[in-house]
Amino acid sequence: MTMNPSYQLSPAGLGDLNPLRAIEKACFPLDAWPMLELIAVLIMPNLVKIKAEVGDNMVGFVGGDAHRFENVGWITTLGVLPQYQRMGIATALLDQCEQQMGMPIVKLTVRRSNLSAQTLYFGRGYQQIDVWKSYYEGGEDGLILQKKL
Questions:
Q1: For the chain, which end, N or C, has fewer CB atoms within 10 Å of the first or last residue's CB respectively?
Q2: How does pLDDT run across 10-26, given as a tens digit for each residue?
Q3: For residue 24, what are the CA distances in angstroms to 11, 81, 85, 95?
Q4: Rounded to whole angstroms, how far apart are CA atoms 131 and 58?
Q5: Which fold does the domain 8-148 belong to in CATH?
Q6: Residue 62, class by beta-carbon neighbours within 10 Å (0-12 exposed, 13-18 middle, 19+ buried)?
Q7: For residue 20, which of 34, 4, 6 has the smallest C-alpha distance?
Q8: 132 to each of 107, 117, 145, how far by Cα in Å?
Q9: In 3D, which of 47, 71, 72, 45 has the Cα closest to residue 61?
Q10: pTM
Q11: CB < 8 Å & 24+ apart, contacts of 123-129
């Protein structure tokens, strides 16, 4: 029997660049953000950036961008290292990001083939509202999901 590790959520910063890069590459091999975008998400002041750590190791990350004039928040990325998935970490990151953005509507994009992520999102109250054709690298469609809080 495997025990779920205890994890902590806290704000992420520029010092988390290398672990974030590793998470992006492990979770999104075709779509990992380039270095410049990773730096931007970690230093831009109005973005929500939360990391999950087990011990001293960063194992997950979520980014959120609140579009205040539109009353919509966007989950820009959510990833948990494969060996730490299905332990509640992604759910905790998602819930915390939604709360910190404070928007009445939250949206995100997910690959059509990423069924495990879709299961998480649908289980947290998201519904599909659109499809962006050939949005992802390799031409795969992106499903636009929305949740009203």
A1: N
A2: 999 999 999 999 999 99
A3: 17, 9, 14, 20
A4: 32
A5: Aminopeptidase (3.40.630)
A6: buried
A7: 34
A8: 13, 17, 11
A9: 47
A10: 0.94
A11: 124/91, 124/94, 124/95
